[in-house]
Amino acid sequence: MRLARGGGGVMALNVAGMAQALLLQILLARLLGHEGYGHFAYVMAWVNILVYLAVMGHDMLMMRNVAAHRARQEWALLAGVLRHAAGLVGGLSIAISALGAFLISRQPGIPAELGATFLAGFVVLPLLAMLRLNAAVLYGQGQVVLGTAPERLGRDAVVLLLVGAATGLSLALTPPAVMGFVAVGGASALALILYLRRRRAVLPVPAPRAVFRRRDWIASAFVLGLTGGSQLLLQRSDVLMIGWLMTAADAGVYVVACNVAELVLFPYLAVGAIVAPSFAAHYARGERTELAAFMRTTTLMTLAGSLVIGIPLIVLAPWILGLFGSEFVDGAGAARILMVGICLRTVIGPSHLMLTMTGHEQQAMRALGCAAAANVALNLVMIPAFGIEGAAAMTTLSLLGSQIAMAAMAWQRVGIPPPLLPRRLLAALAPRDGGPRDAESGG
What membrane topology term does the record carry (predicted)? Predict the structure, then answer.
């Protein structure tokens, strides 16, 4: 089965990337120290949010449209959306970076080291935005390994080499310097993925004359961007609020706990990038039976993989966090809460992908937006009372709520129910406005 073969390849890539990223994080936490790593992690959280703003949903739009236009052989539209997305994301990411750098330079009260880290981060932002966009094109072509490898392995490999060289030369590492290394790694990964895209041409030769539907694309990408931004805010607002309500050092501990917990997500990431364009292509051809089969297979594969990874990590969480330094062991409780939440989310299945890849991104946006707002409100209360464990619990609760709501919407809108959730629960949550509920899904 293509899903199993492709998923296995991306799983192997993710395992290698996981080991490399874990080694890099351990080195940075030890070399930068408790507070220095907190500054670096805090700025990276902001950079990741701004990358989503710069991409503005065009990564999901590209993945969906490349798969759908190729399935229908709509080459002129495909040429148009490729040019449209590259120009818009490139210009917007540079504009956001310039504005951010200006605002930081006008803040006299910000610590010098933190300000310098932010300025270096604004160099990273356009590189990561274009890297994400070009990876989405390869995902839409079904080239998941090629789309994943430059960012998953290439970028961190360059950063790791630069950190090792600086340590070998006895140079003092600072958060701004490490962010500069991330910029070099991002530029290297972007160059590699552009080369791979050239080798795997998405358009026939000779290339057709481009046809543009900018208004439709921007409207759809805007909703997808709000959806992705809401999801990122839902997943990262806790880090920002800990840095605001507590200290940067506490934010550093929590980021490490989140990074360790997110190892449980690798089975989902391994098959999710394969399933997403398949959802779009099957939906474009009206193949609902295949959609249901992909949903079931993906849910079972990701659940099994998450449990295999998650159970040992839950047991070994204090020891793993201790590798980063004794100060980070305090994040074990938060990491365990987040891991349990991720395992529970895999039971629900990829309802978010089902909605966004079938043109129902507005429903996903509403669910994630409400959950993000609830998460911020709950964290305002729980972080002062319970610290990072309170943040982990509220983020887990908000994510679970949004996933269940999107599962109900996917059943009601697309007619594909998640195979492991009780139908009565979904029936109680689904809107009563008609739609293809259970159509051709065997439910």
Answer: Multi-pass membrane protein
pLDDT in tens, 180-229: 999 999 999 999 999 988 888 777 777 778 788 888 888 877 777 777 67
Closest C-alpha among 202, 182, 176, 238 to residue 75: 202
* Residue at 408: amino acid letter: A
Query: What confidence tens digit (pLDDT) does each residue in 26-37 have?
Result: 888 888 887 788
Helix (H) or strand (E) holding 431: none
Q: Per-domain residue ranges for the chain?
A: 2-429
Alpha carbons within 13 angstroms on the beta-carbon side of residue 195 total: 8
SS3 422: coil
**C-alpha span between 376 and 397 (Å, rounded):** 12
- Classify 124 as helix, strand or coil: helix
Q: Which two tokens mark 222?
A: 């805007």
Token representation of residue 378: 């709950």
Write the CA distances from 439 to 108, 197, 210, 356, integer angstroms.
60, 38, 36, 19
Give CA–CA dist 259/351, Å, rounded. Answer: 23
- Beta-carbon contacts of 402 under 8 Å, excluding residues fewer than 6 positions away, are 234, 367, 368, 370, 371
H or E segment to which residue 351 belongs = helix 351-357
Residue 173: DSSP 8-state: P
Helices and strands, counts by H and E, the chain: 15, 0
Are 394 and 321 a contacting pair, CB within 8 Å? no
Number of Cβ within a 10 Å radius of residue 377 = 12
Length of the chain: 443
Half-sphere exposure of 293 (CA within 13 A, CB side): 11
